[in-house]
């Protein structure tokens, strides 16, 4: 038995060294951790249990039968984060450049299947040169097996991708399907075809970083949700993100007790929000004033800045927040904001996370570029996401709620449970200036002083129509609240709706305008 145990230890040590010390040193020289070092940082100390440690590839062509390394370029298994079970895979760039073989894929599929069976998140640490060319179609089949599971388990267990090196070709589609993607600045890249191929085919010259780096994917393409400074930062972001989401679609998000008083008044809100609807302010300041410990975990901070999404807690409960940002485009919805918010709303709905909407918007962004870039169909995605969501939906109209965007952003007509408004809220088809130009055009034109006449009518219109009281009289607003009591009112609404049960008509699935 001792001899066999010694043999086992030797084989384990051989597996754990991956592609060898020289390649590990090269990995470190690039500012990257190894596959195992990453798992040690990500998971609770001593919790990792490795599976399929001695798996090797089956390829005998191109001299591959003489190059077999235990693990075959990916470390897989399970462990805990803050005591909660997670399944993980970490691609090892020191072994065949982390390239995906059929056995490499089988290892990943095994832990994904286990995650779905046992109801726990899947976290993938991606650092791979792509498909293993020597295996041909078997490698392509391996990717397809992973993509299938990404799709089938979407909305069943949370899936998080961390891009910590190159991810190219078909490999990019797995992270694209997962719920959240984190990229490391300067060392991670995602693209279908690299700069060399692009230059050869189109003549365009571009660097890897410009084409598919963290900045490109967090500011332009919205492929990635976070850009981390380094490997350690990326892994800490995963741990932070998981604090807000449940293990699976059958569980509630984790409850975290707080010492922050439920009835804490925030009179500073009076000075934060200008009464002039055209003056900007930072909606994130309002969010932080009312949530537990003033802590807001923002997602996709650098994409579509006119809308803010992220997680926070209210009274210990995890909530998803969607908020218009008056600092950018006056908070107007454009096609990018609609795409960003729609996917987040659907994630929250899939995983039983209540949605809190802070609304302050003048409507959809006008313009030829918006129309030609598909603001209609992309705006319809956000409409669809809110309309089909069955989790608790609580909406607060802070200032402006104009036009069709009022309907879309968690209105009572879209089955919102509780709708609040501040006394300064304006709810109308359009702003007073635009409405007056249409309704009183002739009267203004014929006036001795058209400017004074328009100002007089705008003031009248704002006082009579641009307020929350008409909507409240129709039952569209449940309560007009004192801004200082925002925290208390939101927590009361969460308590009221915590046992909510609502379902949609039976169907295979809807046909969301993708």
TrEMBL record:
<dbReference type="GO" id="GO:0015977">
    <property type="term" value="P:carbon fixation"/>
</dbReference>
<dbReference type="Pfam" id="PF01039">
    <property type="entry name" value="Carboxyl_trans"/>
</dbReference>
<feature type="domain" description="CoA carboxyltransferase C-terminal">
    <location>
        <begin position="261"/>
        <end position="507"/>
    </location>
</feature>
<comment type="similarity">
    <text>Belongs to the AccD/PCCB family.</text>
</comment>
<dbReference type="GO" id="GO:0009317">
    <property type="term" value="C:acetyl-CoA carboxylase complex"/>
</dbReference>
<dbReference type="GO" id="GO:0003989">
    <property type="term" value="F:acetyl-CoA carboxylase activity"/>
</dbReference>
<dbReference type="InterPro" id="IPR011763">
    <property type="entry name" value="COA_CT_C"/>
</dbReference>
<feature type="domain" description="CoA carboxyltransferase N-terminal">
    <location>
        <begin position="1"/>
        <end position="257"/>
    </location>
</feature>
<dbReference type="InterPro" id="IPR029045">
    <property type="entry name" value="ClpP/crotonase-like_dom_sf"/>
</dbReference>
<dbReference type="InterPro" id="IPR034733">
    <property type="entry name" value="AcCoA_carboxyl_beta"/>
</dbReference>
<dbReference type="GO" id="GO:0006633">
    <property type="term" value="P:fatty acid biosynthetic process"/>
</dbReference>
<dbReference type="GO" id="GO:0004658">
    <property type="term" value="F:propionyl-CoA carboxylase activity"/>
</dbReference>
<dbReference type="InterPro" id="IPR011762">
    <property type="entry name" value="COA_CT_N"/>
</dbReference>
<dbReference type="InterPro" id="IPR000438">
    <property type="entry name" value="Acetyl_CoA_COase_Trfase_b_su"/>
</dbReference>
<dbReference type="InterPro" id="IPR051047">
    <property type="entry name" value="AccD/PCCB"/>
</dbReference>
<protein>
    <recommendedName>
        <fullName>Propionyl-CoA carboxylase beta chain</fullName>
    </recommendedName>
</protein>
């Amino acid at each position: 038995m001792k001899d066999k145990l010694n043999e086992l230890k030797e084989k384990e040590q051989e597996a754990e060294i991956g592609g060898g010390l020289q390649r590990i040193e090269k990995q470190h020289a690039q500012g990257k951790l190894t596959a195992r070092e990453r798992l040690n940082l990500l998971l609770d100390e001593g919790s990792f249990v490795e599976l399929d440690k001695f798996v090797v590839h089956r390829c005998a062509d191109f001299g591959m039968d003489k190059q077999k390394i235990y693990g075959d370029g990916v470390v897989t298994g399970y462990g805990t984060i803050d005591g909660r079970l997670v399944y993980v895979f970490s691609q090892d760039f020191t072994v065949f450049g982390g390239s995906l073989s059929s056995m490499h894929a089988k290892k990943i599929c095994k832990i994904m299947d286990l995650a779905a069976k046992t109801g726990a998140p899947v976290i993938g640490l991606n650092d791979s040169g792509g498909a293993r060319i020597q295996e041909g179609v078997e490698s392509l089949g391996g990717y397809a097996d992973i993509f299938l599971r990404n799709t089938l388990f979407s909305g069943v267990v949370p899936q998080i991708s961390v891009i910590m090196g190159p991810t190219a070709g078909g490999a990019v589609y797995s992270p694209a399907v997962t719920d959240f993607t984190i990229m490391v600045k300067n060392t991670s890249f995602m693209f279908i075809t690299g700069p060399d191929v692009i230059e050869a085919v189109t003549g365009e010259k571009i660097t890897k970083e410009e084409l598919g780096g963290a900045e490109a994917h967090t500011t332009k393409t919205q492929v990635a949700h976070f850009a981390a400074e380094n490997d350690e930062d990326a892994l800490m972001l995963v741990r932070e993100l998981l604090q807000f989401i449940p293990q699976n679609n059958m569980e509630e998000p984790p409850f975290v007790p707080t010492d922050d008083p439920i009835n804490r008044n925030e009179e500073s809100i009076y000075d934060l929000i200008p009464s002039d609807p055209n003056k900007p302010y930072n909606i994130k300041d309002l969010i932080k004033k009312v949530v537990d410990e003033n802590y807001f975990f923002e997602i996709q901070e650098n994409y579509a800045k006119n809308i803010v999404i992220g997680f926070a807690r209210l009274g210990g409960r995890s909530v998803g927040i969607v908020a218009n940002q008056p600092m950018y485009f006056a908070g107007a919805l454009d096609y990018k904001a609609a795409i960003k918010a729609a996917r987040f709303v659907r994630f929250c709905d899939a995983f039983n996370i209540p949605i809190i909407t802070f609304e302050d918007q003048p409507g959809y962004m006008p313009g030829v570029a918006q129309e030609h870039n598909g603001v209609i169909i992309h705006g319809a995605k956000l409409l669809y996401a809110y309309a089909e969501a069955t989790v608790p939906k609580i909406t607060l109209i802070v200032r402006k709620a104009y036009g069709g965007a009022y309907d879309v952003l968690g209105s009572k007509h879209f089955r919102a449970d509780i709708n609040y408004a501040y006394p300064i809220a304006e709810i109308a088809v359009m702003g007073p200036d635009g409405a007056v130009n249409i309704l009183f055009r002739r009267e203004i034109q014929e006036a001795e002083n058209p400017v004074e006449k328009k100002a007089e009518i705008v003031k009248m219109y704002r006082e009579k129509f641009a307020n929350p009281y008409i909507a409240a009289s129709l039952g569209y607003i449940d309560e007009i609240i004192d801004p200082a009591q925002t925290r208390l009112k939101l927590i009361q609404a969460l308590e009221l709706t915590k046992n909510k049960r609502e379902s949609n008509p039976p169907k295979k699935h809807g046909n969301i305008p993708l």
